[in-house]
User: Fold these one by one.
Assistant:
Number 1:
Amino acid sequence: MSSAFKAGLEDVVVSTSDICFIDGKEGRLVYRGYDVNDLVEHSTFEEVVHLLWQGDLPSRKDLEAHRKALSATANRRLPPRLLGLLRALPKKTTPMDVLRTGVSALSAFDPDAADNSKQATYRKAVRLTAQMPTLVAAWERIRRGKAPLAPNPKLSLAANFLWMMSGKTPTPLAEQTFDVALILHADHEFNASTFAARVTAATLSDLHSSVTSAIGALKGPLHGGANEQVMRMVEKIKSPAVADAWIHKAIADRVRIMGFGHRVYRVEDPRARHLRRLAAELGRQVGDTSAVEILDIVARAVTGDKHIYPNVDLYSGAAYASMGIPTDQFTPIFAISRVAGWAAHVMEQHANNRLIRPRSDYTGATHLTYVPIDRR
Ligand code: ACO
């Protein structure tokens, strides 16, 4: 075997894909040919989901049908026995573990569970994308000792999620901010969780298994889990007045600063700019901009001293916190958007499949003589 390998598969091209393009030098993110900045300005999450799954922007009629499917109570509702399963979990279970468990369990209730045809996978993608926000919100209510709220089919996916979490209709700014956050997180090429989904799909396994794999990969702090860690850092810093000293000490101590750096972007992640603006607007609306102020100081220091730039996870949490969302729900929120991308990639993988099975560069011994147990 050749000993040439790329640690972490850096820059290794695994497959062709029509779904998402990242220009890491220019800081551009493109879904199916459309710049994410244009989608943020003109589109909605539901429209972006259609774009990712069908390959193009929908007509008005197609969008209406697609919206209806994603918002139908029959698709958003959780099976009562699944709610029973959630109630049986220890209250301290983290929301990301609940989501992983819940998505896996949902396959047992899915009428298309055993069918991996293109049409059935599409139907399962609709249901899972509609159910995951309900699952995340239901756990939030259950762990606080409250009854889960029924989804409202009249609300967008963003507004309905915020409603099911708190029982309050979100302000227009909160709904719009959340919708933009969903658009920005919807896909990102062959990131770790999407790759995990594709590896699973490439064994000709099903959508629920692929998404369960992806959720496990997203959870880690080097990937989606970073947004929670950013907020823990803000909580530690506490005040903008001490942020500069705090971050310079962390840099001197060679601490890995969450919310910075990226395998592909060599400049600022284009998603960070939108999330910063929205976090600042929401902060002003609720009368507390301290998290964004702290993060701005941290960003100036990290970029100035280390030339490492903010990524998508730096400001998203500050926006969610202003909506009253607890920190450990930030990564599940990432997942309720990214399921759109995962599903698009599973469908693309199934449409042109080959098992993904790389090799390792073996560095262990090869010709040891077996030693019987009583002589070791
Ligand atoms: N803080 C401090 N130093 C950093 C950071 C950071 N956030 N990111 C990279 N570096 C430094 C590393 O120490 C390393 O320096 P060295 O060569 O002197 O040792 C160099 O930059 C390269 O870092 P790697 O870890 O090799 O880069 P890699 O491409 O493997 O990692 C990653 C990318 C995991 C995103 C990394 O930048 C990181 O750990 N960031 C913090 C976690 C985070 O925010 N993750 C979310 C990413 S976006 C997403 O997944 C949704």
Note: The beta strands are 20-23, 28-31, 34-35.
Number 2:
Amino acid sequence: MPTIKHALATFLVLTASVAMLKAQSAPTLLVDIDHRAATSLDGEWHIIVDPYFGGLYSFHREIKKDGYFQDVDPADNKTRPIEYDFSKSPTLKIPGDWNTQTDSLYYYEGPLWYERKFDYTPKPQNRVFFHIGAANYRAKLWVNGQHICDHEGGFTPFDCEVTAALKPGQNSAVINVDNTRIEDGVPTLNTDWWNYGGLTRDVSLVTVPEHFIDDYDLHLSRADHKTIEGYVHVDHAAAGASIHVSIPELKVDTNATTDAEGRAAITLHLQGIQLWAPETPKLYKVNISTGPDTLTDDMGFRTVEVQGTKILLNGRPIYLRGICIHAEAPYRTGRAYSEKDADTLLGWAKEMGANFVRLAHYPHDERMTRAADRMGILVWSEVPTYWALQFDNPTVLAKAEQQLHEEQRRDRDKASVILWSVANETPNTPARTLFLSTLADKAREYDPTRLVTAALLVRGQGNSKIVDDPLGKALDVIGTNEYIGWYEKTPEDAANTTWNIAYDKPLIMSEFGGDAKAGLHGGDHDRWTEEYQANIFRNQIVMLNKIPQLRGTTPWLLMDFRSPVRKLPGIQDDFNRKGLIAPDGTKKKAFFILQKAYQDNSLGKPE
Ligand code: GCB
């Protein structure tokens, strides 16, 4: 028989859970955030490492009603002990992963609390959002003791409205970030990259008018290359709200009105336009306004489509001379987050002769896609639907869809992004195919102007490889990964391998390569040496040039990256060494082989 005390305790727990649930209403997602007025909250935050999650759960693992690590009235100290003090706790820098900021957190996976105070001056008729660029993997936000929102997914931004929670003067924010790997997560338990925890990207307060532009899509029409079409959406707009869009340099503008859903269709007829392309990465200032809300974006306009086995950029066939990149910071390692990181990584790709990058295996910092827009580098963008997710679990599908949606919303204004990748090396099962075909449909539904791809596994023994994964049906462009000369056979075997591709679609060889420790030298058959890696690349190029429908290559990969599964002492030391560049910037021999092939067009032809 439950006692009254027990019933009361249950009631309190339930009430607390309901309060938690209330706070969980989906965070919104502001677009063009880097052009909005924002107060940066980057810098030093106090932290508490909380491996048992004592700040959230009581001794019977019930959610604490009022005991989260947050501001409590010091008077409370008289009735119960308060066993934490943020002001006396150490600090960590935001943005930044925690693993590379302090030795004791090198392998840490679990919950960690961040806290800081900030000043705020209210502005009437405005709404304020707490913007988090990325929190790996789950996050909970409190402002002035009020639980505001939760978010899951470590590589996409989210914004939570804090207008009512803020007060004039000093405020406090507490964020719990938990990078515990979970089986029903996206990604799941096993990956070949470091599970960097923390607030790995910018954090800020963003102020917008009461009704603000919360989404838009403006793209060049594939039909005539002379019309920009799309829509603008205004949050909570009444039907008939007026929208103005202009591109002063092109001397075009238009007025439109929102429909009952807050959306206004936009059409701009152009007299002439410099199309965005790798050789001419022209960006135009685009102004969008409604009432007091004005946004300016820097946008390029181009088209991308598939014609048979060709990829057409602005109607012309293109070969994608690419390279894979992890969001690993050059020189210091850890999660990349800065303008300088983006410029270095993409600068190296350019130096290699690339016009294309595969940003593996999750959405990178927005600075990467902005820099790609400026530098004229085409982008394959990916969600972490990596390896063996729980493909038969609808909750996991919902999580993958959410991450894809957040990625698309953030980067739909970037001309550089041409491909949405829905997966990497997933097992061929009916549940997987259904899951990823659904994701591919979602990608097209939200953005029909780009192409959908995935990196597939390859079949075949001996010198014959077969690409017939049924997921290929759902894709516009087929990606395939292979490691001939590294995980199988010898580098020379590649040159004698033939390919049988079941789809009459463009193919991108989305991974190939092998490990080399920079500075380690030997013969062409001595593993881990630069010579061995170079030998792989030489032979791969011979093989690749014999695949008629090959339209792009993104070898694995630009720079070495940390991975806890890479254990060989003296060689790997927790790094995957398949980079063509070491983290200290040293270029390995294979870099120059690929550079030559890209610069003199001896790898790949557009048609
Ligand atoms: C792959 C994966 C990539 C790994 C790479 C490797 O096929 O897609 O994430 O890091 O192989 O080095 O084994």
Note: Confidence is low (pLDDT under 50) at residues 1-25.
Number 3:
Amino acid sequence: MTLHIDPARLDEATSGPRRYQMLIDGKWTDGEVGLEGERVSPGHGIVVSRYAFGSEADVARAVAAARRAFHRGPWPRMKAADRAAVLLKTADLIDARREEIARLDAIESGKPISQARGEIAGAADIWRYAASLARTLHGESYANLGDDMLGVVLREPVGVVSIITPWNFPFLIVAQKLPFALAAGCTTVVKPSEMTSASTVVLGEILMQAGLPEGVCNIVLGTGPEVGAHMVAHRDVDMVTFTGSTRVGKATVQAAGATLKKVAMELGGKNAQIVFPDADLEAAVDAAVFGAFFNAGECCNAGSRLIIHKAVAKDFLAAFEKRAARVKVGDPLDDATKVGAIITPEHLKKIENAVVDATADGASVALGGAGLTSAAGQYMTPTVVTGVKPDMAIAREEVFGPVLSVLEFERVEEALRLADLTDYGLSAGVWSRDIDTAMTVARSVRTGTVWVNTFMDGYPELPFGGMKQSGIGRELGRNAVEDFSEAKTIQFHRGPRTSWWVED
Ligand code: NAD
């Protein structure tokens, strides 16, 4: 496989590297210590962004601004209708800048531009959905506690929320958190990945333009240890919502425990697509190719394990390989590209090593297996590993690259055992025309989402999140705003209480 990267496309996409600043208390600012970062496009091998990076002092400034905005600013106190109006305006401004934002995500993360456009449109839709929820958030009342008592349960914003996001869906993932926190009346400190910060800065510009009061959304740029860890440890932060690796997620939960913060975690996955012989096999083949190679496999939801019935395994794999060979790997800025670049050279090495280790464990490489590195960046050929056994690392651990592991089964119970053998529980797919088989699998697997005869669709209306070590809590869905609120119970007594504790 050869790579053809047209430098003209990148020139069109950027007018030289822009330098991005942080947003603290409504003002654009450099860090107090003067740290700097830069991003080399993984698909083009040249510097495309420079950033002002922050440190503990900037986290302190941002948290103080968010705290002030929470206690004294208008945002938590204004009508939900007015908050919703800001979210709706934000969605319109995202739509207006869709192409620019999509290009930033494509050149910084290496994802295909056509896919990035879909993500930005999807993000705008989520902002609109959050606006609708802002107006329906409500508490409860209890008029059944006796004639002189009325119990009221208010939903109050949780307070200052730290939002930490990864590099694989930079603009989409912040949209799964920030609009719901804002809809609830919270104030926020946001940290994007240090590798893909540009689109989150553009979101900050949009929020200011949409009329978000200063201090309500602060954006601090920088690394996990220099910025993220302080956003988790700070005493004045009430909640941390984090999307990233299970390893950092666990450390984050531990650190947040020191001050008993509320936590929401969206972590890794090792998701199975289980295919039965009675399925529409053509549709299943296409979904298996999509599931394994979408976003170059750098996707928490990747269908990185195919659990295929022995009776159809040979034909299915032949059809899979034929289709996979037609997947266009290449320049993220080419409209026809389906698999773009790998995030860093180090990550490419990790993916390649996972394949080498699998072969050392006794598995075979049926397709691909090697990376493509050149001055134009780093890419990985779509890869299929067959003969995978349940105890191999490739069957259990997240590779986070375009690598499919194939396991075979004969009985439903065996398929279920294979599906659940990992520590993860994010999502699964089942392919069968038989309602009993589909229902048995869908109800048995321990994952937060199950797709039946489809894969990786997403809707703001449907909750998303993981069981087991894939996370804590759910994003999206009708409870998404409630998750950024606290219940406060108020008991109203009619007249003074007359049952004395100490009798006169
Ligand atoms: P990562 O855990 O390395 O980093 C995620 C974020 O945490 C980044 O912003 C990083 O700077 C920050 N961070 C790093 N160390 C930190 C620390 N000590 N304290 C606070 N913050 C810290 O993850 P990544 O490599 O950016 O993303 C890939 C991972 O994210 C994969 O495991 C993937 O499965 C997961 N992911 C999960 C979902 C989901 O919804 N479940 C979605 C996308 C990605």
Note: The longest helix spans residues 113-134.
Number 4:
Amino acid sequence: MTSPKKVRIHHFREMKQRGEKITMLTAYDFPTAKAFDAAGVDMLLVGDSMGDNVMGYDSTVPLTIDEMIPYTRSVARAAERAFVVADLPFGTYEVSPEQAVESSIRMIKATGASAVKFEGGRRIARQVKAVTDAGIPFCGHLGFTPQSETALGGRRIQGRGEHGVEELVADALALQEAGAFAVVLEMVIAPAARAVTQALDIPTIGIGAGPDTDGQVLVWLDAAGVGDWHPRFSKQFGAVGQALHDAAAGYVAEVKSVAFPAPEHTFES
Ligand code: KIV
């Protein structure tokens, strides 16, 4: 099977059916989105993880749709092949199906993203149905849902306990029934992720959910090694933080010592 020139919604179900893993990375701006698109990442997620990773907030909660729109637009402009999904931030979909549809339409029209994602299972199924009925592709997000961190009692692994797996499967089936094309499973015990993946026709994309989901997603700064710390379920595939530090330190040293700019960087006439 050759890789599609442009990844479209039906490709994800086909990938699940033939057992090809789906790759997703977060992206928040044009240059990183361009690099990830060229590297063959199937799906770019403009996640509300932008709140803590880009804007410097303590969590995803303060982020607004107005803040997300320009970043999302830059990612959508960069993506030639990848399918672009935009998160709806906290407070923009919970109140009613009407609110969810209005926010989704606003996000899609203003940015050129192809789909929206928001958090929750059965409790937001009416919103999901309304959004998909409006013709907007929807990606679910279950397990640890950062917008509800306080209600969940902190960053806790999900799917544990007597009814943990059952509850997750019921939520995932409700999202599928409401028209979702995929479901992200975050920080879920591997047996629960496996059970959800087997129960669904649509693909699951895991983050801290083990190897048996239909795809994987990571926050790009964790995957590229930008910070000193990354969650245990993530892996640093590069040392971009160190490379940025070294480039900036080299620049500072050469400007101070007047080694830069050299004659080849200078217009004499
Ligand atoms: O906002 C985000 O980056 C996410 C991923 C962690 C899946 O939702």
Note: Residues 26, 45, 47-49, 87, 141, 184, 186, 207, 217, 219 surround 3-methyl-2-oxobutanoic acid (CB under 6 Å).
